[in-house]
Amino acid sequence: MRFILVLILLTQTLFGADPIGKMVAVEGIVNAIAENVKRVLDKNSDIFAQETVIVGSNSRAQIQFTDGGLMNLLPDTEFRVNTYKYKKALQKDHFASELLKGGLRTLSGSIAKKNPNEYDIKTPAGTIGLRGTIVDARLVGDSLYVGVEKGRALVSNSAGSTLIGTGQTHQFVTVPGNFTPPILVLQRPDELETSYFVSPPDGLSIDQAQTQQTIKTLPPQSSQVNPASPARGDAGEAPSIGETPDDSGIQYTPIGGGASIQGGC
To answer: What is the pLDDT of residue 250?
Structure first.
């Protein structure tokens, strides 16, 4: 009886809040845990802040966030979004998350593009911050491996930081631990083999999604400009606090302590 009561209260708490995204695709066993209560995630399941998404062995998952971001979670991965603010009145957009175990491949959405200092993925070895970026990240033992396919990422921890990606000399970095500076790597490490990061069956291709984002950001063919037009692509809506005036054009369409990572275009 007590367990049932806790489950009811948790459900009311979670679903009283706005979902931050949906499961686009699920392969195998994927669960979400909050307040020691587990729920099974299937395709189209809502995702909420403060939940830890746990991907089982031989399983994969893909999440689409409401800001247009897309993320693949590898087998044996634990990932949690601690804070998620997007289009909240009088609040700056913000995404703070943790990769506790395993790995991910992510295409950043509107939050990272417009508020690059407000998006980070914390890991036991360092933090990753990004915008306008496709990033691969994987934890192997105590080490963090990060690669940037497009855009830039700032990888930092208590011992130092380094910027990788577009316009930089390197695209890859390894971080042996939180007290060891990030080490630049010339070639993609074996730990970041691209086959690890493929989308689950029925999932979206992150590369294709990035191409669609790029197409949406292209200026219209017409040379006429309406001076009364709003700053964003959404009619009548002003930019969120702290965001840059350029519009990512991203639309959310539901499909059925350690180191951090930060980045920039």
So the answer is: 41
